[in-house]
Amino acid sequence: PLLAPMSEVAGRMAAQIGAQFLEKNKGGKGILLAGVPGVKRGKVTIIGGGQAGTNAAKIAVGLGADVTIIDLSAERLRQLDDIFGNQVKTLMSNPYNIAEAVKESDLVIGAVLIPGAKAPKLVTEE
Fold first, then answer.
1. CATH numbers and ranges of domains, the chain
2. What Gene Ontology cellular-component terms does the record carry (predicted)?
3. Cβ neighbours for 100, distance < 8 A, ≥ 6 positions apart
4. 50: burial class by Cβ within 10 Å (0-12, 13-18, 19+)?
5. pLDDT score for 1
6. What secondary structure letter does DSSP report for 18?
7. Who's near 30: CB < 8 A, 6+ residues apart?
8. What CA–CA distances, in Å, run from 48 to 23, 30, 117?
């Protein structure tokens, strides 16, 4: 019963804190997710479209970021398209889509849960 509200908080905090770590004074590249005229918006990739991922996307969209959500379920991706409309890009989860999205991103948020198991490692340093 506590997983859903905890996931909401975790997703929202991930986007907010991630945005802070993009600031130069926090050791980041000095990226403003909303961008400014003449400068591209920051790119956020969220791996996992469940409760945490959806809430991370809400905050990232609210901050003005260019947001991509990756999930295994085509049905969930359709639901996310309904929720966000053209505010986010959705992709099926596979090694190629993950690798390409991560390469292009300023901020990557992992929001994948397999009940009873450790979180899968979907992104490597390579």
1. 2-110 (3.40.50.720)
2. plasma membrane
3. none
4. middle
5. 60
6. H
7. 22, 23, 24
8. 25, 26, 15
Instruction: Specify the DSSP element, H or E, that contains 44.
Output: strand 43-47
117 CB burial (10 A radius; 0-12, 13-18, 19+) = exposed
Average pLDDT for consecutive 10-residue bins of the chain (126 residues)?
A: 83 96 93 93 97 97 98 97 96 96 96 75 73
- pTM reported for the whole predicted model: 0.91
Determine the pLDDT at residue 126. Answer: 67
Of the candidates 41, 54, 43, 49, the one whose C-alpha atom is nearest the C-alpha of residue 8 is 54
Phi first, then psi, for residue 33 (nearest 5°) are: -55, -35
d(CA 95, CA 81): 21
